[in-house]
Amino acid sequence: MSLTLARRLARDRPALVALASLVLIALACFVGPRLTGHPPERIYPDFVRVAPSLAAHPRPDAVRPALTRLAFRMRLTLEDVAQDGDRVRMTLTAPKPIDARSLRLLPRSGLFGEAQVLERSADGRRLVVEAPLRRLTFLLGTDALGRDLLSRCLAAGQVSLLIGLTAALAALLIGVAYGAVSGMAGGTVDALMMRLLDILYALPFVFFVIMLLVFFRAGLWLVLVAVAAVEWLDMARIVRTQTLSLKDRDFVRAASALGAGTVRILVRHIVPNTLGSIIAAATLLVPRVILLESFLSFLGLGVQEPDTSWGVLIAEGARALESAPWMLAAPAGFLVVTLVALNRLGDGLGEALDPRLSAAEAR
């Protein structure tokens, strides 16, 4: 079965491209934050809302203003600056003897390395200091606090993919089992199970989340529990409908006549013949969950700092759309590519797992 599925997918080039895109996005999200050179939580106060660029920062005309701000924080006066390649020599003065420990602010700023004192006046009120200049590149720009947006998007992807895949897995496990049992049982049992489903549908989702907040603190795990608790309902209805249409087929009657039990019929005959619809619905469920998480985060009920997600970044970018459009474009780009790839891969898997295609190939 796996070899047949692989051969069918190999003939579907768009599905292969979608699968490769998802693998690359997943690898980038889980490995990339360690390779960008910028920790996702690192703040660069001198580079707030910097536009995307391949050029390294700081620019030559920005070195002196940055040193002036740092000198002010150190309660010193910047008298002179000379830049030689990637090294900066500066002269600092103060009305009192200068404590060399204050120079620790230079490497903490992220713009300079460890400072070295070259000259010191006899009274200690004048220092000549040299420090290496760090080159920083922000490929996707920075946000309103000066954090690298590429690192933030990759770290946010970990949370969004985790929430989407966890909710899809919960929907598959709970929804498939519930829907298959309901459709196979039929009669009064089916009616009671569907009425319970209707009651759960009637509960407002936001009210349900607020009720959870009474007992738990807002955060990632609350989002996982809340989304997984409601997103299996659609899956259950889909599987029930498919089961009702399959249980009167000849192959199911034949299996029952040969002595197969209900559980065996469900596992060996009913569920495999619904895999196409299940996978298609599951791939559509992942993007819906990600969007639902963004809605919760926008209300302050979802992912909380220091964690982030694509939904949180999109909400932040929407508020800064006029002044910094890249703050919205970057996370939205990751989200759109992921959603399109999931949808196309779901179509390809649904076609590859179609039992009618298997019968045609067998003939």
Automatic annotation (TrEMBL):
UniProt entry tagged with the keyword Membrane: yes
Family affiliation: Belongs to the binding-protein-dependent transport system permease family. OppBC subfamily.
Subcellular location: Cell inner membrane; Cell membrane
Domain ABC transmembrane type-1: 157-346
Signal peptide feature range: none
Native source species: Methylorubrum extorquens DSM 13060
Biological processes annotated in GO: peptide transport; protein transport; transmembrane transport
Topology of this chain in the membrane: Multi-pass membrane protein
Recorded superkingdom: Bacteria
Listed Pfam families: BPD_transp_1, OppC_N
One cellular component term from this protein's GO annotations in UniProt: plasma membrane
Record's keyword annotation contains Membrane: yes
Protein name in UniProt: Oligopeptide transport system permease protein OppC
Keywords assigned by UniProt, alphabetized: Cell inner membrane, Cell membrane, Membrane, Peptide transport, Protein transport, Transmembrane, Transmembrane helix, Transport
Gene3D superfamilies for the chain: MetI-like
Stretches that traverse the bilayer: 15-33, 159-181, 201-230, 277-303, 324-342
